[in-house]
Amino acid sequence: MSNPTFGISIQRQDxxxxxxxxxxxxxxxxxxxxxxxxxxxxxxxxxxLIFSDNADAIxxxxxxxxxxxxxxxxxxxxxxxxxxxRVVIVRVEGSETEATVLANLVGDSSLKTGIHALRxxxxxxxxxxxxxxxxxxxxxxEEDGQELLANPVVAALPSLCSALLAHAVVTGPHSTLxxxxxxxxxxxxxxxxxxxxxxxxxxxxxxxDSVGAVLGVAVRRDHEKGGRPFHSWANQPLQGIVGPxxxxxxxxxxxxxxxxxxxxxNGGVIIRGQAGVEGAIASGGFVFIGTDNxxxxxxxxxxxxxxxxxxxxxxxxRTLRFYLGRFNITGQTIEAVTNTMNSAxxxxxxxxxxxxxxxxxxxxxxxxxxxxxxxxVVNFAAEEAPVLRQLGVRSSRYRxxxxxxxxxxxxxxxxx
Length: 416
Known about the structure:
Elements: E1 28-33, E2 48-51, H1 55-61, H2 70-76, E3 86-92, H3 98-106, H4 121-125, E4 131-133, E5 143-144, E6 147-148, H5 152-164, E7 167-171, H6 177-184, E8 192-195, E9 199-201, E10 206-208, H7 211-224, E11 236-237, E12 243-244, H8 258-264, E13 269-272, E14 286-289, H9 303-320, H10 331-350, E15 354-360, H11 368-372, E16 379-384, H12 400-415
Parallel strand pairs: 1-3, 1-4, 4-7, 7-8
Antiparallel strand pairs: 2-3, 5-6, 9-10, 9-12, 11-14, 13-14, 15-16
């Protein structure tokens, strides 16, 4: 008997809603080649966590290979009070043969090599990359007879992203509209975010995969919104580049333009601003436009919606796991769980991340047998806020203004 015979007994009660425990959705994972890298700092097929502003880490990566320049693009996009992004680097063996490099990047899921080395980041590094890029190697396609095959890296990314609850930004052929369409037709995953345009950097300028710039914008936007990934990266300026790799015609008011055709096919584009042109996206600089993932379900078309739902699911996992094994199934326990879920979702609604929600416990989903076996089910429904993609303005004449004019004239004349 632990209670005193003569004294005071104090017990802590655990029936209150738990505070929400959130996940960092803005850790970047980059997989690529770096033949001049310090092998001790960046072992092959081994995830390494760095801060993107770490000069030693950047120097150890070397200046050649597909990873070169990507950290600079990421850093150029960071916003106010941001010092660096957290980046998990996976280096694979380079080769003079492109097919060999592609095979090294795809790697082996059981051996955790190539892109699958990112699966080891959580246990080894304590972070899970949920924004993934494979610079330089997502646009290549092999021709098989009369058809173009899918890029092998892009084909392998959806299963990895599903396992990590991540999204991958992949860049296409960056050459012509038809080349983009042919490439886009080989992709079907709501965890893939397709981008058409590469970028130019330096002087004399050189083409570089824009994936680092787009991922950097993603990190900045999450930071601006308190770490919550419910907002699009569209209509955001890109810094650190001297231009897109090619100019793409764009108009805010005319759907018959190349950029609008790419956007219709769920692609992202980098557009040059134009001073004095009202139909341009900006008066100057370079702007990223892209709202979609490459999935088939229009209900989950926007990547800010799918990333937001990942955030909610991870929030629930990290918060509700506290109850497992610590509590018996009682009415108080079920109420504590539902109150915790309500509290977490209420906060997201207050921030404008979701429009509304409902948490409910249903009798027909919770049989006595399941309760006896230690299981119960709680449902929730939430509606993420969609991105504003098209704004319609209807213009018409206003006849009451003429009536008001005539009334004023009559009043003035009669008064005189």
